[in-house]
Batch of 2 targets.
Target 1
Amino acid sequence: MVTSLLPSTQRVLLRRLAVEQSENRVPSLIAGLVRDGETIWVGSRGQVNGAHATTDTQYRVGSITKTFVGVLVMRLRDEGRLDLADKLDEHLPGTSLGNRSIGEILSQCSGLTAEPAGQWWERTPGGTPEELLATIDDSALRPTPRHQFHYSNVGFGILGELVARLRGAAWHEVMDREILRPLDMRRTTLSPVAPHAEGLAVHPWADVVLPEPAEDAGAMAPAGQLWSTFDDMTRWARFVMGDTGEVLHPDTVAEMRVPGSVDDGPEWRSGYGLGFQLLRHNGRRLAGHSGSMPGFLASVWTDPVEAEAVIFMANTTAGVTGALGTDLLDALAEHEPRIPEPWTPRPDVDMSLLELTGEWYWGPSPHVLRILSDGLLDLRLGHGRRGRASRFHPNGDGTWTGLDGYYAGEILRIGRDADGKPNHLNLNTFIFTRTPYAADAPVPGGVAGWRPAGS
């Protein structure tokens, strides 16, 4: 067991894992936590071939496969080989989905059926890409609004073939060359390689198990074929959080974590980005994916802000509760929260920026502009109020560009008086002044001056 946690924290985590495995009768279950790129705890319960699973035991990871396909598509986008706005017909012509964009398919809002035509694809040998594409007729489209979330395994089968057509090689060969080898994920494979767990179903009313088939899914393999280990999934978790090596720019991975569609349940807790599932939990914004194939369940959830991740893998068709991962993260936060690094003054602050800091007013609303430790500017509502907030990075010409929030991509310009002193901010036509509606700044509509009510 790898751990750097207090014994009391380890016991809490182990008990949660043990309860999950025992009460839900899971043949084997391995789970662990990552913080700051390091595995800080791993626990294993049950047995694989008469022994505890290790971090090198393979399990089938199901739909976590989709995240790898998403990365391959985004690599093509970043190379200029395709655009997310491209219609499918521009690259894979001839289906009834041809007028839907690649971005819609990638973010699960294309309206495509969830499962392919024919037999239950997860338990039967798969067909060829040509056979899959031939089934995408009008009957494969669902009468849901095109912007509405509708999970589709078929969509990722199509995206796998899109990658194959544009690269001139099978999608899994491209994945091995462009992702797995660069990230040294040598135990992530299309078919099982020993040591690996056997996929099992547990009888609901008796303590007996049934072996599940593990067929090659063929053209549907990009939706859930991969096998992997806990160690490899920790590397993938680091990738999702931004440790991308040379595989993809971290900004692109951050783009993949932005919601493209929302699963509209009683409350908005989950959604889908560009190949990543998204989840909100106790103030966290988690990105990753769950996985389910006959005989196996798995999940990888990451919190890029906290640089934390949770992973679990099990060889059971059903039984592991969806709350296991978030419960482990909650236990970590409760029993071993981070201790902040000591604050120290920075020696490299651009002193010329100090004159921009402090209070600015958008109309009568106070905002505060401050310099962040990384040299960015931060603008947000003052007096502890919540509302629009954005960070800005310098463009080198005296202007700044918004990085996030309402003003993402918008230009901030510094207005100055005749003496060169900053007297207003122009943020995409919004004018911020040092005092509410300052008369010496170019406030649109002019400033008539403050007066008592009724005068």
Target 2
Amino acid sequence: MTKKRYFFTVLILGSLTALGPFSIDMYLPGFPAIAKSFHTTTAEISLSLSSFFIGLAAGQLLYGPLLDRFGRKRPLYVGLAVYLISSAGCYFCSDINSLIVLRFAQALGACAASVASMTMVRDIFPLNQNAKIFALLILILGASPMIAPTLGGYITEAWGWHLIFVVLGGMALVILLTVIFLLPESYKPNPDYSLKPAPIINSFLTVIKEPQFYTYAFAGAFSFASLFVYVSASPIVFMEVFKVSAKTYGWIFAALSVGFIGASQVNNLLLKRYKSEQIIWVALSTQVVVALLFVIGSWYHWYALGGTIGITFIMLCCVGTVSPNASALSLAPFEHNAGTASALLGAMQLGLGALMTLGIGLFKGGSALPMAGIMETTAVIGMLILAFGSKHIVHKVEVSEHAVVAH
């Protein structure tokens, strides 16, 4: 693959991965305006965000089998078409119930882009480059929390919230055209792959029974859940506990995103000297220790605003290091059903992340302790899974910058 082809392939796959997060972050500043337009409350508008998350989780399991049966691009075309139609519907809708349904449909479309991009990494690039490519996708993905909310705020203020969905639809259209003309089909359709419920369930069971998959997928998903907890709890911690303004919170959110994104890129340098497996052990162990210090410090009120930002930054660095390596090792054993494995991995990450955020309701009083406690819980569970699961991996497929070894 030429350098030019390599660059455009990574850029297209990164754009596919970022479509869903942009769809979440860009319309958040428009909540009050949407509520006013629909004569309802901001709390009810947030249900459209909940339906989006549900659509993403459900879509993970839907597209995996489709990608393995029909190839990568045809299901992707369908998903992007659904996204375009539902974006147009969001622009024209005039009540909350319609928005909730349309956002669910929009998530199903965005999910096709996410699952296909992860699967095509496994198809297109050598196995020993997968962790590096996943880290590059995270770099592109990182543009969302730093650009989308600000852009959405300017659009809402200047032209109204409806135009946000025009912009999102325009992004999807550009992505669709680049996929059609610049992205090669990476997997031939498999007519022998059955779409009947029983074979699909058996396919998912086959994937999850693979020790290397369930070890690194679950360990990585619990580590990744800390990111969901942070996103859900950070408005409360920074704006209610530490009383910063919404503008200041935006800058804090952007700065902390640099930790997650930057760590994923430092991971590329680490892969030149260490195996993905070694990096995960160190990063997840560090995450457990840092989260414990966060819990103790929050209990004794050691951390002011600066300290809380600093220790959260380190936590997100750990997550950003674990995530690409866990994804690469989880998918490494699969070649013919990589779509199913990728979909199951995504569903696990979204599902566990959403489940862990339920504990955010524990926030009472002026402390970051609930956020720290849930982060420690997820890190410890991930570490235990890694420790016990590794013992059951008989034929390990290792991934590093220099070697692909099955033993």
